[in-house]
Amino acid sequence: MLPTLHRSVRRGVLASLLGLLCAAAPAWAQQPVRLVVGYAAGGPVDTAARQFAQVFGRELGRTVIVENRPGVAGALGGEAVARSAPDGSTLYFGASPTLTITPHVIKSMPFDTVKDLTPLAPVLSYANALVINKDLPIKTLKELIAYAKANPGKVSYGSAGMGASNHLSGELFAKQSGITLTHVPYKGNAPAMADVIGGQLTMMFDIVSTARNYIQTQRVRPLVVTSRERNASLPDVPTMREAGLPGYEVIGWYGVYGPAQMKTEQVALVNTAVNRTLADEGLRKLWAEQGYDMWSGAPAVLAEQQRKDLEMWRGVTQGMKFE
Question: How far does the signal peptide extend, from start to end residue (predicted)?
């Protein structure tokens, strides 16, 4: 038996066994995982990905390195993953606008967001908040709609650019409420918000995690959030449904994807590690404070939400020109 062997012999046997185990393990299990983000460092997607990666690596039992591949509204990052080997060593921290809006607004989309990726696990969801200039005599969504109808073309809203999720959120709002809005595209949410605060714009839709700072410091007035339920970080702000538009619901989300044709056991391994990550109390508290909602489940849950949103944004963008 092993305990009766000389210490040096035991060490040699153990080293040999360890070597055999390592040799038998698949190559992908010994390499760092690249978690690709399709946006620049410092933005909300990158920040969430890095917070996620710290815990995910521990649960996966591998080093996870976040890699930024910005460009084409996040599509360059998705393309890098879609073209990689389906061995689990390259994953995509995908944002819903890239996966469900960009295919409708960019003719030269470099990859197919459905056929070229494998959904692995949902991660989190978030709502937008509709905020307006605080000096306007408007307190509710119904008052905003009435004001827009009485002043056609005078209600302006900003976005992060043509085809951005907050641009199309405004288009959907205009269609469902029967009003006319003037869209003003910017090169990001921050300059648009600055002009809402300054009174150059009437309103904008902004992700709760960034809008809540302006709301809490009373620089803008929130009217609604776009999710089905109220947001925990803005409990006094009603939903679109509560405020009078029962058919309006827009959420954004992040999910983990791999290349197409990943093996079933690899899909299950990553999904389990993601769900364990989302059970981490520290991460749950951090994201709740930022206005995010944890969103866990099977790969099919992520795939179905992507399918649903692709169809919704197809209807909103139909007939619009972007390029």
Answer: 1-29
